[in-house]
Specification:
about 100 residues, rod-shaped, Craniofacial development protein 2, two-stranded antiparallel sheet, 2 domains, alpha+beta, about 20% strand
């Protein structure tokens, strides 16, 4: 019924030349598309409205028990900080 989106000047002929483009996987999100003939847009095209429902997926929350807590207080100890520095230097030299 409201498929025509463009009116040929000087006649009553109406053609469907304006479309709503979506990706194939999101085509099920388009609920309704309609051309409104009433609003005057100062154009020979009719206003096209699309109702689109966006579905959002849930994000998984990480449990706090799986997170590893680092004991950074040990780095304040002189022997531990030297041991850490030497081990990181060895790793860097091994990659070069």
């Amino acid at each position: 019924m409201h498929l025509g989106t463009w009116r040929v000047s000087g006649t009553n002929a109406v053609n469907q030349i304006d479309h709503v483009l979506t990706k194939r996987r999101q085509s099920s999100s388009v609920i309704d598309v309609r051309a409104y003939r009433g609003p005057n847009c100062d154009s020979d095209h009719y206003l096209v409205r699309a109702v689109i429902v966006q579905r959002l997926s849930k994000t998984k929350e990480t449990s706090k028990s799986t997170r590893k807590n680092w004991n950074i207080e040990k780095l304040n100890l002189k022997d531990r900080s030297d041991e850490y520095r030497i081990s990181t230097e060895r790793k860097i030299v091994g990659y070069l």
